[in-house]
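Structure first, sequence second, as always.
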């Protein structure tokens, strides 16, 4: 992710709105060929805000049964956030 010093004003504004939002109000724009940078920053912020940012950084599943159920639930949250920003083709 970019540092704060190289974030464009549009990205900063969108991120501040995202950060200020309640978890249920998180809005990430649909991914297009022109907005990957802001989209990726906002998706990472949304995932981190929901506590599931690590699910895109690692594919390690726990082996313990009780931990696996929690992992599956959190993974589903991460997948839903990402898929919610994609258009069906």
């Amino acid at each position: 992710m970019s540092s704060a010093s190289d974030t464009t004003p549009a990205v900063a504004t969108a991120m501040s709105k995202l950060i200020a939002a309640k978890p249920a109000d998180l809005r990430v724009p649909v991914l297009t060929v022109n907005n990957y940078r802001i989209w990726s920053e906002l998706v990472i912020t949304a995932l981190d805000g929901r506590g599931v940012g690590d699910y895109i950084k690692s594919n390690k599943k726990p082996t313990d049964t009780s931990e696996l159920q929690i992992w599956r639930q959190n993974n589903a949250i991460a997948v839903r956030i990402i898929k919610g920003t994609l258009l069906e083709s």
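Margin note: The two ends are 28 Å apart (CA to CA).
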